[in-house]
Specification:
Blueprint (H helix, E strand, L loop, with lengths): L1 E7 L2 E7 L16 E5 L2 E24 L4 E6 L6 E2 L4 E5 L2 H50 L5 H48 L1 E3 L4 E3 L9 E2 L4 E18 H10 L10 H4 L3 E6 L7 E8 L10 E9 L10 E18 L4 E3 L2 E7 L5 E12 L2 E6 L6 E5 L11 E4 L8 H4 L17
Parallel strand pairs: 3-21
Antiparallel strand pairs: 1-2, 3-20, 4-11, 4-15, 5-7, 5-10, 6-9, 7-8, 9-11, 11-14, 12-13, 12-15, 13-14, 15-19, 16-17, 17-18, 17-20, 18-19
């Protein structure tokens, strides 16, 4: 309160001014919280079986020493692409060259021995012929009483002796032929050993680093390096018996006999490296376990083959495998971040025409790349809270800002639109 005095025409006038006034203390409700809302996306999706797998080289071979000796040369660089029979190592050939020469000399000696034995046989046969003639003559003389018994016995003994010499000569020839065969076998082995001093690539592929350094001694069977052909890659994986039934139903109809390799190979398979988010490789089933389902694990083994000319896959990598089994038309998709999950289930916060929040339980199917398939609980024309869930309470009102959703930023989902199951890239994960 302020007091002021003024003198007007000799009269003191006192004015009292009240400088305070009262204001209203009524409660004013805050405006509804702002949230971002959206409607689901409808899209045709291919449903896939998803499993983990491990890659394996289609061809891999160890480079081993087939003879012992010191390594005199290494003719490759680690990781180099080599062709079959390309020289990789050289093992000292001196000893093996000497062995080969000795074996060749043994062959020549055996051939010469055969010639000597054949000459001896010819001489023995001539002696047999002469002895036969002498014996014939002595018998004629005896018949005419012109010869003696002693002369006849001597001719008979000479004939038998010459025949024995001929048989011995024949035996010597057979023995010499056997020695020749043995000598030739030793020569062939010596030539092989000499050839093996050059260690060659067993297959086409890339060679690993050398396990044996230059100048070191190697033994027969020592592993020197490995050659791996990575131009194609196997992926081994297993599926459950239940998923096997789904896969059998999904096989395209062919004229091939059921369960034949050609029949299974019609099923496309998709591979993604562990850690990749978008890139998939296309392949086909290559083998199914002929032993059937493993009774211990209840799983069925399969193998797929993939082209790997670009070298993006390496043996032993853990990968994700997907096999298409069926399609869903007009699948209801929402961003996974819009789902509220707790111990009782999965929920969405819906916004009605009066901008009021309704909490509704939904059934969520497969998820991929931040998107979820809603199996039940959401209609295509309903609106749900996308962002601002912490401000949305059941029964309360909100101030919505609607946004339009699209799968354009998800290549795998977008690519499934209007695609057939046989050639559509993977778009969904397993149940």
């Amino acid at each position: 309160m302020n007091l002021s005095s003024h003198a007007v025409a000799g009269t003191l006038v006192v004015l009292t001014l009240v400088g305070c006034s009262s204001t209203s203390n009524e409660y004013q409700a805050p405006p509804p919280p702002e949230v971002t809302t959206a409607k689901p996306v409808l899209q045709t999706l291919t449903i896939f079986i998803e499993e983990n797998g491990e890659t394996e080289a289609v061809e891999q071979a160890d480079v081993r020493a087939r003879v012992g000796g010191f390594v005199q040369g290494i003719s490759f660089a680690p990781g180099q692409l080599v062709e079959k029979d390309q020289e990789l190592y050289k093992i000292e050939p001196d000893t093996y060259q000497a062995n080969r020469n000795a074996a060749d000399a043994t062959v020549q000696a055996a051939e010469a021995a055969i010639q000597v034995s054949q000459a001896s046989l010819a001489s023995a046969l001539a002696s047999v012929q002469k002895a036969e003639n002498d014996l014939k003559r002595e018998r004629q003389l005896e018949a005419s009483n012109a010869g003696s018994q002693a002369s006849l016995d001597a001719a008979l003994a000479a004939r038998d002796s010459s025949q024995a010499e001929a048989k011995a000569a024949e035996a010597n020839i057979e023995a010499d032929k056997a020695k020749l065969l043995q000598a030739k076998a030793q020569l062939a082995q010596a030539e092989l050993d000499l050839e093996y001093t050059i260690v060659r690539a067993p297959i086409d592929g890339r060679v690993s680093k050398t396990e044996i350094k230059l100048g070191n001694l190697v033994q027969v069977g020592s592993t020197l390096a490995s050659v791996v052909d990575q131009r194609t890659i196997f992926a081994n994986f297993s599926i459950s018996d239940r998923k096997l039934l789904e896969l059998v139903e999904a096989r395209p109809e062919t004229e091939e006999p059921a369960d034949s390799p050609e029949d299974w190979s019609k099923i496309p398979v998709y591979l993604q490296r562990d850690g990749d988010s978008t890139q998939w490789m296309n392949g086909n089933l290559d083998y199914v376990d002929q032993r059937g389902i493993d009774e211990r694990t209840g799983t069925f083994g399969l193998r797929a083959v993939f082209d790997n000319e670009d070298g993006k896959l390496l043996p032993g990598m853990f990968v994700i495998i997907r096999l298409p089994v069926r399609q869903i038309e007009n699948a209801v998709l929402i961003p996974e971040r819009a789902i509220v999950r707790n111990q009782t289930g999965s929920y969405l916060m819906l916004v009605d025409g009066d901008n009021q929040i309704e909490q509704r339980e939904i059934s969520v199917g497969q998820t991929l790349d931040g998107w979820a398939l809603v199996r039940d609980g959401l209609e295509a024309d309903e609106t749900f809270v996308l962002d601002g869930l912490q401000r949305a309470r059941p029964g309360s009102k909100v101030s919505p800002t609607i946004t339009e959703l699209s799968t354009d930023d998800s290549p795998m989902l977008k690519a499934a639109i209007d695609s057939s199951m046989d050639d559509a890239p993977p778009t969904e994960t397993k149940d």
